[in-house]
Design a protein that fits this description.
Elements lengths: L5 H8 L3 H8 L7 H14 L5 H8 L4 E6 L5 H16 L3 E6 L4 H8 L9 E4 L6 H5 L7 E4 L8 E4 L2 H14 L5 E4 L9 H15 L9 E2 L6 H13 L6 E4 L2 H13 L9 E5 L13 E5 L1 H20 L18 E3 L2 E4 L2 H4 L9
Parallel strand pairs: 1-2, 1-3, 3-4, 4-5, 5-11, 6-7, 6-8, 8-9, 9-10
Antiparallel strand pairs: 10-12
Helix pairs in contact: 1-2, 1-3, 5-12, 8-9, 10-11
């Protein structure tokens, strides 16, 4: 049997081929009744979009790249799942690349890996410098995730400083005063760790609590082993905190292990809170309080921004057609929502939704 074509769908639905095309491209000015009739015809005939032909006609590959530091870090794995889902809605394929936080690999990603097989790049950088982006003026378009702000690319992130301040304020409201920041950094860098450390310091200052640089527990990487090692070293030195602000959930899960080894009760002796709301925190003992970024929104906004830049490159001056599509060539800085999720590591037993 011949593969059904758009004209077959149009004939079956009793509409024009243009109307079928509008439905396939999710054009907003199509009535719900027409959309339903066309979709029923598509399902009945088993019609599938000819992606190869579409990309050939448009001069695009239909592939975007998602570049993250580490694929085995749960946050990036969960984020990748959301990006893939958003891309699939737009008939795109996602190439997932691990940079290892290496500057040369991140620069190669911004340059499209030295070829034209990707239409655009979503990059979560660790080592990339602003001048690396300013030096790259050609394709492919790039959207950055995380804290690196530059005038050379669009950017999507949560407000990390505010989120850390809210988490610290919660610990203070519980009566905690000896708060250590696992993974904290107080240098002048623009990374996520620096932003979250600033938020913690701001909360302490607002509460009239002195900041002690020794309250920062440095780590080599943001893995469970690093969190456990940092807390073990501190406890071995005789330091007895009553709260830990861990700058991601992996560090927090490692910290929980170290506290248990030293006989500390959580949260009775030490309250623990993390960042990222990864699935493992639902199954730790105790369950982990955390700052939950809206990962689905991060993916949705990043993909929408990238697609707009891809379209804009093909058709300069393209006007916006929705809230997630900017109408200016100027790079966009998009802040998505976060929330504080309270579980047993700070609260003991809490309500069913666990949201502060």
């Amino acid at each position: 049997m011949a593969r059904p074509r758009i004209k077959d769908v149009a004939r079956h639905a009793g509409v024009s081929e243009k109307t079928v095309s509008n439905v396939l491209n999710d054009y907003v000015h199509v009535s719900e009744r027409t959309r339903r009739v066309v979709q029923e015809a598509i399902d009945h005939l088993g019609y599938r979009v000819n992606l190869a032909g579409r990309h050939l006609r448009s001069g695009r590959s239909g592939i975007i790249a998602l570049v993250v530091p580490e694929l085995d870090v749960p946050y990036f794995a969960e984020l990748a799942r959301h990006v893939v889902r958003e891309a699939e809605k737009r008939s795109l394929t996602v190439l997932i690349h691990q940079s290892g936080g290496d500057r040369e690999r991140e620069r190669a990603a911004v340059a499209g890996f030295g070829s034209d097989f990707v239409d655009g790049v979503i990059l979560s950088p660790l080592a990339l410098a602003p001048e690396d982006l300013r030096a790259h003026t050609g394709p492919p378009p790039t959207v950055l995730l995380g804290e690196l702000l530059t005038d050379g690319a669009d950017h999507v992130a949560i407000d990390n400083e505010r989120a850390a301040r809210e988490a610290t304020e919660h610990l203070i409201a519980l009566g905690r005063r000896r708060i250590l920041t696992v993974g904290g950094r107080d240098d002048e860098g623009v990374g996520t760790a620096q932003a979250r450390t600033r938020g913690c310091r701001a909360a302490l200052a607002a509460a009239g609590l002195a900041y002690d640089p020794a309250s920062l527990l440095p780590v080599e990487a943001f893995h469970m082993a690093d969190g456990a090692a940092a807390v073990r070293r501190t406890l071995a030195e005789g330091v007895r905190p009553d709260a830990l602000l861990c700058l991601n959930d992996q560090l927090a899960l490692g910290a929980l292990r170290a506290l248990r080894e030293y006989g500390a009760r959580v949260p009775e002796d030490v309250a623990v809170i993390g960042f990222d709301d990864v699935e493992g925190g639902l199954f730790s003992v105790p369950t982990l309080s955390t700052v939950a970024p809206d990962k689905e929104a991060v993916a949705r906004v990043a993909v929408a921004l990238l697609l707009h830049r891809i379209d804009e490159a093909a058709r300069p001056g393209l006007p916006p057609d929705g809230s997630d599509r900017p109408g200016s060539a100027c790079p966009q800085d998009r802040v998505v929502a976060h929330r504080l999720v309270l579980r047993e590591s700070t609260e003991g037993a809490v309500g069913p939704d666990g949201v502060w």
